[in-house]
Design a protein that fits this description.
The protein has about 325 residues and is α/β, with parallel strands linked by helices. It has ten helices and 14 strands. It is about 40% helix and about 20% strand. The strands form four sheets. Strands 3-2-1-4-5-6-11 form a seven-stranded parallel beta sheet, with helices on both faces. It has a three-stranded mixed beta sheet with strand order 12-9-14. Helix 2 runs parallel beside helix 4, helix 6 packs across helix 8 and helix 6 packs across helix 10. The relative contact order is 0.15. It binds nicotinamide-adenine-dinucleotide. Nicotinamide-adenine-dinucleotide binds next to helix 1, strand 2, helix 4, strand 5 and strand 7.
C-alpha cells in the first residue's frame, strides 16, 4: 500500500506521514517547502520537493509508485491572507489540487483520497455544535476554496468513482512524538503557539481580539484538537475507504470549546510565566464560538479525540516551539 501525502513537510502532513509509516504503510511525501523550515519525514519514506500542480512531476511519481491512497494536506492556510490574495488561494487550494487528481487519473490511478478540509467552510454558526449538515457559508476565500474542492471531490466520485473523505479540522494544536516534527507556520497565526511565544518573550504581547463576545468570559471559544489525534483520524479515514465506505465529510474536533482566556491560563500554568496580552477590537469575520459536532466521526470512523487535556496540549506545543530557530 503506497500513500502519497501532500504537504508532508508541513505541520499536519508530517504528523500523518510519520503515523502512517509507523503503522507499516509506504509513504511518499510531496511538498513545495513554502514555510521557512521543513519537518523531516521518517526513515524509509520518500520526500519529494515539488508542487502538487506540477503535472510532469506528479505523472512521474504516479508511474513509479502507483499510489493506492492520497492524503491531500498541501494548501495555503491563512484566512486573512486569503482575503488580500484570493488568487493564490484559488490557485493552490483548488486549481493545483484539481490538477493533482487529474494527473493521477490520467496515469490510470483511482486512489482513495483523504482531504484536509476545515471548519472555515461553515461560516457563522446558526446552531452549535456544528454538525456536518450545518449550512456552508464560508466567510473567506480560504474557506470557499476548501469547500469548492469538497464539491469537486463529490463530482469526481459521481463521475469517476473516486471515493474520498473530507476531514473538516477545527483548531489543530500540540505536537506528536516524532523527532523534529512540529508546527512551523510562517507567519504563525494560531493561538497556542502565539501565546507560548509571548510567554517566553519571543514576541510582544498577544492581542486578544474581542473581550465582549457572548461567551462566559467574553473571549472567543474554539475547539482545540491534538495533532496526534488528527494523525490517527487520517488513518481511520483511509481504512474506512479501503473497507468500501462511501465518500463522506467529517468534522474533526473534540466537541468541547476553550476560550482564549482559558488557553492563556493554560500557557501560564505550563510555562510558569503569565502571557503578556492586551484586549483588542474584534476581528472582522470572527465568530464567538466554533465547536465541532463529533457524532459522525464516531459512527463512521469509530474515532474520537483522546488527547483533550488543555495543559497537556500546551506542554506538547511548548516542546515543539523549542525546536524552532
Ligand atoms: N492547522 C490547522 O489548524 C488547520 C485547520 C484546518 C484545516 N487545516 C488544513 O490542513 C492542511 C495542513 O495545514 P498545516 O497546518 O499543516 O499547514 P502547513 O503550512 O504546516 O502545511 C502545509 C504544507 O503544504 C505545502 N504546500 C502548500 N502549497 C503547496 C503546493 N502547491 N504544492 C506542494 N506543497 C504545497 C506547504 O509547503 C506546507 O509545507 C491545510 O490544507 C490546511 O488548510 C489546518
Amino acid at each position: 500500500m503506497t500513500t502519497l501525502v501532500t504537504g508532508a513537510s508541513g505541520y499536519v502532513g508530517a504528523h500523518v506521514a510519520w503515523h502512517l509509516q509507523a503503522l507499516g504503510e509506504r509513504v511518499v511525501g510531496l511538498d513545495a517547502w513554502l514555510n521557512r523550515t521543513q519537518n523531516p519525514l521518517p526513515e524509509g519514506a520518500l520526500a519529494v520537493h515539488g508542487d502538487v500542480g506540477d503535472a510532469e512531476l506528479v505523472a512521474q511519481l504516479a508511474a513509479r509508485h502507483r499510489f493506492d491512497q492520497v492524503v491531500h494536506c498541501a494548501g495555503l492556510i491563512q484566512v486573512g491572507e486569503s482575503v488580500r490574495h484570493p488568487d493564490r488561494y484559488w490557485d493552490t487550494n483548488l486549481v493545483a489540487a484539481k490538477r493533482l487528481l487529474d494527473t493521477l487519473r490520467a496515469a490510470g490511478l483511482s486512489p482513495r483520497v483523504v482531504f484536509s478540509s476545515t471548519a472555515a467552510v461553515y461560516g457563522e454558526p446558526s446552531r452549535l455544535p456544528l454538525d456536518e449538515d450545518h449550512p456552508r457559508l464560508p466567510q473567506s476565500p480560504y474557506g470557499a476554496s476548501k469547500l469548492a474542492f469538497e464539491a469537486l471531490l463529490a463530482d469526481y466520485d459521481q463521475a469517476y468513482g473516486l471515493r474520498s473523505v473530507s476531514l473538516r479540522y477545527f483548531n489543530a494544536c500540540g505536537k506528536g512524538p516524532y523527532p523534529g516534527v512540529c508546527e512551523r507556520h510562517e507567519p504563525e497565526t494560531h493561538l497556542v503557539p502565539l501565546a507560548i511565544d509571548a510567554a517566553l518573550g519571543r514576541r510582544g504581547p498577544l492581542a486578544v481580539f474581542g473581550a465582549d463576545w457572548p461567551t462566559p468570559d467574553g473571549t472567543c471559544v474554539r475547539d482545540y484538537v491534538h495533532v496526534t489525534d488528527l494523525a490517527e483520524v487520517h488513518h481511520r479515514a483511509l481504512a474506512y475507504l479501503r473497507d468500501g465506505g462511501p465518500s463522506a465529510r467529517i468534522n474533526v474536533g473534540t466537541g468541547h470549546g476553550h476560550s482564549v482566556r482559558e488557553v492563556l491560563a493554560a500557557v501560564g500554568r505550563v510555562t510558569g510565566r503569565s502571557v503578556p496580552h492586551h484586549d483588542a477590537p474584534r476581528r472582522e469575520g470572527d465568530v464567538a464560538v466554533l465547536v465541532a459536532g463529533v457524532t459522525r466521526a464516531r459512527s463512521a470512523l469509530g474515532w474520537e479525540a483522546r488527547r483533550t487535556d488543555l495543559d497537556a496540549i500546551v506542554r506538547d506545543a511548548l516542546e515543539g516551539r523549542a525546536l524552532l530557530p
